Amino acid sequence: MSKISKVVESLNREFEKIWLSEPPEVRRLREDEKLAGAFEQKGSLLLYTDEETAEIQLYLFYLKSLVASGELGIDAAGIVLAKMLESKGNQWRRYYGMDETPSLMEEAAVALKTAENSDDVIAVVDGLLLYLGRLSLWLDQTIPWAGVCSMIDWHIRS
Length: 158
Prior knowledge:
Blueprint: H1 3-20, H2 24-31, H3 42-69, H4 74-96, H5 100-112, H6 118-141, H7 145-157
Helix pairs in contact: 1-5, 1-6, 3-4, 3-6, 4-5, 5-6
């Protein structure tokens, strides 16, 4: 079994795990008192993680589109995607105390370096998009959006 097939299976397995159950790292972001964002505020930690998860999904989608159209070669795509995933995974470990998702991203980065064709790249990116999309939903639901919007509205009116 190729590295690509193994990482796609791993991503699918992890996606299934978090489909109906909150990922442990999201629970830690909510509950671990040692994890805090800017000025020791839990809210910024959750908001930044939620935003960055959406951001990386967007970049993955764009890169997948470039690979699918042939505008970005397989070697370049593998290098760019691997570097992006490694960097973001490292950042999430340092800033947010996350481990599960960065490990998956690093596994995908290693596999992408072995991609032989656009189907390999697309398979890995599709697996990442599914997993990160579901993670993003879990993160998004931790944020009390009505309260955040009310506070912003109050601040604007003041």
